[in-house]
Design brief:
The protein has a domain of 83 residues: DNA Binding (I), subunit A (Orthogonal Bundle). The relative contact order is 0.05. α6 packs across α7. It is mostly helical and 246 residues long. The longest helix is centred in the N-terminal third of the chain and has 19 residues. Bound molecules: zinc ion.
Length: 246
């Protein structure tokens, strides 16, 4: 009774075996008896304990290590001969291994790459918005003809802190995280002023607009020293125990 469907055939065999279990077992017993007869007389002595695959592997490893240690040149010669003879095969094997270890990356579409770039840019902006705001200001200052532009976001924070978050002209105080304080250039960019630490003071928007590009209405002492603290990686040297304490 040939079946086209192997599943059906298996099912039929199962049913047959279930219905003829006794007969099937008898056949199995007879075949086992035949196998034992063919295998010859039983082993004499201590029966060999079955070993696990791991143990078999270990034994093989030990024996080959022993061989290598005892016949190094012979092993090397054999190996070299095999390699020369099967150069192409070995090369193919190496290539296959490499391609398995380095599967081709799935291709991305330009749209996927665009979205990824967008997400990365958004994450970078969210991590440090002040840095990017300052970068925009730098570009704008250069566009407006500033002779130089090197104010950093952290410097601007320090300037605001140094003046107590107050407008330098009217004295109005703002909260620490304010964005209402503008960067007023003491010498306007259009008059050759630089967009740098010593030319920038905090000012509220009305005062900044009123001043426009003119000279400051009051005398202002700009910050003369660089107020940025030393960077972390330089602090190690200043804190070395060998340095004398003053
Ligand atoms: Zn003001």
């Amino acid at each position: 009774m040939p079946y086209k469907d192997p599943e059906k055939e298996r099912a039929a065999r199962r049913t047959y075996r279930a219905n003829h279990r006794e007969h099937h077992n008898a056949l199995e017993r007879a075949s086992a008896k035949r196998r034992r007869a063919l295998a010859g007389p039983k082993r004499i002595g201590r029966p060999r304990l079955p070993i696990t695959d791991e143990e078999r592997k270990d034994r093989r490893k030990q024996s080959s290590a022993k061989q290598r240690a005892e016949h190094p040149t012979q092993i090397k010669q054999n190996h070299d001969r095999w390699r020369t003879k099967n150069y192409e095969l070995e090369r193919q094997r190496q290539l296959t291994t490499y391609s398995m270890q380095h599967p081709p990356k799935p291709k991305t579409t330009p749209e996927q790459r665009r979205l990824r770039r967008r997400d990365l840019a958004r994450a970078a902006y969210a991590a440090n918005p002040e840095h990017f705001r300052q970068k925009r200001k730098t570009r704008s200052a250069l566009k407006r003809g500033a002779v130089m532009s090197d104010l950093s976001a952290s410097q601007w924070n320090e300037i605001k802190a140094a003046y107590g978050y107050r407008c330098i002209y009217c004295g109005e105080q703002f909260p620490k995280n304010t964005r209402a304080l503008h960067q007023d250039h003491l010498t306007a960019l259009s008059r050759g002023g630089a967009d740098t630490l010593h030319n920038i003071v905090p000012s509220c928007k009305p005062c900044n607009s009123r001043k426009y590009t003119n000279a400051a209405p009051i005398f202002v002492q700009p910050l003369l020293l660089t107020i940025s603290p030393p960077k972390k990686r330089y602090q190690k040297h200043t804190e070395s125990p060998a340095s004398p304490t003053l």
